[in-house]
Amino acid sequence: MTIPTRYQGGSASHVPVGCMGLGLMRFTWTQQPLLPDKEVFATLKTAADHGVTYWNSASFYGSQDPLSNIKLLGRFFAQYPEYTDKIRIGVKGGFHGIGDLSRTDCSEENLRFELGEIQKCLGSKKIDIYGPARKDISRSQEETMQTLHKLQQEGLFCHIGLSEVSGATVRVSHAVCPIATVEVEYNPFTLDIEHNDVLAACRELDIAIVAYSPLGWGFFTGATQGAAGEALQKSRAMFERFSGDNYGTNAALANQIAALASKHGYEPTELVLAWELQQYPKLIPIPGTTKTPNLLKNIRGAHVPLSPELAAEFRRLATDLSAQVAGGRYNAYLRHTLFR
């Protein structure tokens, strides 16, 4: 059974995508050996065949080669051209050069170069959504948007997306030219967009929210204990919520979600994703996974019917957990890049 569709915003308001997308980062931005294409492609085909048609990538999702995630997509569409028109690709970039995350650079010269390199990797597949991963504070947002709009009009990509921006930046940007998506973290530990004007701005302007880390970087997968929990904590040790005593505190909080899900006969992933989908008609969670069984488990969340009573119970719990979570979303060095 394919999942229901949703629409993006701005110039993409007529473009349907699955109500749940797929985050591709972990396929290539990892310290583990990369999976063989055959295994990755099987997972991607399963996603597409179930209606998961919005895939999220970036020009820096690679531990060795920053463009390796884009190149992976290029190989997939070359081998399976029948999926080219079925899938919408969202790509983030806007850092100086290719893969230099030390500073943003939304100059026309830099964005034009980056888009050219991305398109070379994708081959015949068009860049559907493109935008900077972080706000370029070295120039006005109006200038950045004018540059993006110019490159969009030249046909270098189809629609504009933003990432980790404030509500004020969303409004300023949309006044220059239409925004299709705003990508930001959203999960029961991280309800920030409900209180800082981002969700309100997107509702007002009819912009889709692409919700990354909808399962709390793994806290809401039900795999927080034993060997799986140790592996999860080790792989995310650079994040405050996974470091030191914070991990134990947050794992215990996440277990309350798992207990609620079990009480109603669901996996925690199913319940979390089903609840998130209810919060805004244009919210598109993009859980990331490299395993087909986990993908199918996530997809089931799109088919969970939440009663008003269960939705209210979940809301009370999420509000409580978000107030108790230990540690910030990122480390202190990176937090200054958020919601600019």
Automatic annotation (TrEMBL):
Keywords: Oxidoreductase
NADP-dependent oxidoreductase domain segment(s): 20-316
Top-level taxon of origin: Eukaryota
One family name in Pfam for this protein: Aldo_ket_red
Single GO term (MF): oxidoreductase activity
InterPro entries for the chain: Aldo-Keto_reductase, NAD(P)_OxRdtase_dom_sf, NADP_OxRdtase_dom
Protein's UniProt keywords contain Oxidoreductase: yes
Annotated SUPFAM superfamilies: NAD(P)-linked oxidoreductase
Keyword Hydrolase: no
Protein name per Swiss-Prot or TrEMBL: NADP-dependent oxidoreductase domain-containing protein
